[in-house]
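Hi all, long-time lurker, first post. I run a small reading group and we've been trying to get comfortable going from sequence to structure in the token notation. Rather than ask abstract questions, I figured I'd post a concrete chain and ask someone more experienced to write out its structure so we can walk through it together at our next meeting. Sequence below, copied exactly:
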Amino acid sequence: MGDPPVIVFDVNETLSDLSPLGRRFSEIGLSADEAQLWFAALLRDGFALAASGDNGSFSAIGEDLLRVRLARGDAAMGADAAVAHVLEGFRELEPHRDVVAAVKALRRHGCRLVTLSNGSTAVAEGLFARAGILDDFEALLSVEDAGAWKPARVAYEYAARACQVETEQLTLVAVHPWDIHGANAAGLRTVWINRADERYPGYFSAPIRTLRSLAELPDVLTSRGR
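-- Answer (accepted) --
Happy to help. Here is the structure in token form:
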């Protein structure tokens, strides 16, 4: 028998459902739609820092971006309270409905499960603890310890070192095409979860597999689907 598959999950949006953040934005007096724009800007600025050789903090970038937006003065509460309210939302997120069963099935098949997030390990730990799947993961990894955000190659290489395998032995599972592209470039196998039935961008390298749900993943990554 070969070595068990080592599956590396992205966390934000891949495993966690970020839609409740829209309600948090509404509660501080902003539009719910601004939550998606804020998160996209957070990733953009994290990528920019990584490209220039820096390794920014997910929470620090998110906080500063919120303060820039709140400086316009149209929020329903003060900046400190508004920032705390939004960021606290990350500690109350729940996984997507297809996550728990898929994680349990993968573990039954003997897969090794880890995460690699541009956010903090504390967010992932809380998410999994609330869902009852924390013990199914052997490691919760963050780019805070890798030296650069995904999709920089060093982030994926850090995950391989932490798992004591070569990058070619890792399979990244993510909803973000930029993450798939970065993992491809680093030599990982890749699975794109396309829950929203979107078109994959042609300027990124394609995933090895595309699935509509994590529910399909156990069959794909075990003997029946490999």
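A couple of things your group might point at:
The chain has nine helices and six strands.
Residues 6-17+93-221 form a domain with the Rossmann fold fold (CATH 3.40.50.1000).
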